[in-house]
Structures are given as C-alpha cells and as structure tokens.
C-alpha cells in the first residue's frame, strides 16, 4: 500500500476551505492507503499564538478531525510537537534548502505581508519543516489544497538534492489535489483564499459555525451585479459559491446553472447555505461527543506519537549517518 501523510495546523478554527480542500477526503483515503495524520502545531507559532488559544484550537481540531472520519485505530493521528524527529530533521534539511528557494514561496510572501511586524526566521524556513514532516514518513502522496502544491514541489527538490548528494534516502512524494474544493475563496474577498488565520470572520465559514451563522455569512457573500448564476471569468464570488455548492451536493456546474435558471442570487445563496449546513450537521453532532472526552483524545494522540516515532526515528538515523554524524 502507498503511504499518505497529511497535516493541518491548529492555527484557528477549521474552515470550510480546509474541509473541502483537504479533510473531506482524508477519511475515504484510509480505505486505499496507509495513512498518517498530524496536527502541525509546530507550524502555528510562525505567527504569534496566544498559548491558551493554541491549546484550545489543538483540542478542537483533534476532536473535529475524528468527527470527519479519521480513525485513529487504522491511521496514527498525532501532534507534531510530540515527535522531536520533526524538528531534528528540519534543521538538517534547512542546510539543504537554498535561501532563494524559500524567497520564492508565495505563502511566505503572503504571510510576511500580513504579519509585517513579525517576519521571523521560522516563517521563512517553514517549508523545510514541512519537508521534514513528509519525508520522515517516506510518504508517497500528500493530500493538500492547491495552496500547498508549491511546498510539496519544494519538498521534492530538497529530497532529490539529498538523495543525489548521498544515496537514495527519501521517497519522492507527490501532491494529491483532489478535484472539487481545491481552492475555496473568502466570501468577503473572493480573490483571496479562505484561511483559518483570516481576521475577517465573515469571509470564513467554520466547520463548527452555528447554522444561523453559516446562513448569514452566505447571504452576505460578495457577488457581482449580473444576477445570473453561471460559471464565468470575472465572477469570482459566484464561481466560488458554485464550487462550494458542487462540492457538498455532488452537482455539476450545468445542473446548478439549470436549477437556478431565472432565479436571483438571493435564492442561490440561500440554497448554498442550506446545503452546507446539512452537510456539516452530522460532523457537528459527532464533534459534540468527541470534544467532551479529553481522556480519549489524549489516549489517541499518545498512541499515535508512539507509533509514528518508530518510523520517524528510523529515517532520522539514516539521515544522520549519511551526513556524517557519529551515531
Ligand atoms: P493558515 O491561515 O493558518 O495557514 P489555513 O486555513 O491555510 O491556515 P492550513 O493548516 O495551512 O490551513 O492547511 C490545511 C489544509 O487545508 C492544507 O491541505 C491546505 O492546502 C488546505 N487549505 C487551506 N485553505 C484552503 C482553501 N481556501 N481551499 C482549499 N484548501 C485549503
Ligand atoms: Mg495555510
């Protein structure tokens, strides 16, 4: 079986973008692949985090991912900070990553603009930590939204460089971008992607939002003045709503255009909101159960860390030996 590694940062409440771009598919992948899942908490501190909030977000995200169908009995699901090999390999890979490569990362450009008062070294070297996350487990595939494909590409370059310098050490990973929900945009600014760390909460639908909040956000979504539901260039707002609707209902663009022919944006937004609420309802119900049982969550992540540490340490030892460290 091919191995999959995937992670999400507990950097805020999980958004509909995270869900449609990534999480929605993770549960099903467990049937065909050998999956390892993580909460990438080390990555979150590239941006200032309030400690109590980070702890809260971590627990919440863990319970939510279980609610989305991650089965910790089949797939180890751990917290990145519990497995020191991530930080250890990241340092080594830093030394095999070029300054220029990191400078070209669009996420660094975006985030350093957004957090101009805190352009720290970690924000810059984030991609080599992400490379370590993936390469430690010799992952074949990394399911991500489209915003992360550049990082997986860099991971391949680092792996190839290391393999060439020594001998084959790392499996070359491929990004797995599933169609639908590749890139969910902000409801308030459809030219920007929906992000957990966005300050404009009206632009983001959170998986745990109350139904009335979801409805309100969709009703206020920015669209255009044409008032015709169809997919076209220059209609970023409507295109985004159509993508979301297609993703949660399984309908094609043609079906949607047909269903809303002659109807206004108000009706369409209402329908999108309702479809999202219905889609998220069972997840929210499961969340209420999981989140109330911290002892169970802890048991799951402890077991996960123990399992993956064996794989991670094996790779790390190999790397250390090749580099020339005395073991
Ligand atoms: P942050 O703003 O802190 O970076 P984020 O919302 O970008 O948070 P991440 O934890 O960085 O979330 O990414 C988790 C997963 O969600 C990744 O696979 C990423 O590709 C995917 N993802 C994030 N935003 C979107 C989006 N708007 N559309 C589709 N997929 C997304
Ligand atoms: Mg992100």
UniProtKB/TrEMBL annotation:
Give the residue interval(s) assigned to the motif 'HIGH' region: 10-18
Catalytic activity as recorded in UniProt: tRNA(Trp) + L-tryptophan + ATP = L-tryptophyl-tRNA(Trp) + AMP + diphosphate + H(+)
Q: Which PROSITE patterns match?
A: AA_TRNA_LIGASE_I
Q: Where is this motif: 'KMSKS' region?
A: 193-197
Subcellular location(s) per record: Cytoplasm
Give the residues the record marks as binding L-tryptophan: 133
- Kindly name one Pfam family recorded for this protein: tRNA-synt_1b
What GO terms fall under cellular component here?
cytosol
**Which residues are ATP-binding?**
9-11, 17-18, 145-147, 184, 193-197
Q: What one GO molecular function would you report for this record?
A: tryptophan-tRNA ligase activity
Entry's EC annotation: 6.1.1.2
Keywords, alphabetical:
Aminoacyl-tRNA synthetase, ATP-binding, Cytoplasm, Ligase, Nucleotide-binding, Protein biosynthesis
Q: Tell me where it mainly resides.
A: cytoplasm
* GO BP: any one term: tryptophanyl-tRNA aminoacylation
Q: Which family does it belong to?
A: Belongs to the class-I aminoacyl-tRNA synthetase family.
> What do we know about how this protein assembles, alone or with others?
Homodimer.
Q: What is this protein called?
A: Tryptophan--tRNA ligase
- Protein's organism: Caproicibacterium amylolyticum
**Lineage of this protein's species?**
Bacteria, Bacillati, Bacillota, Clostridia, Eubacteriales
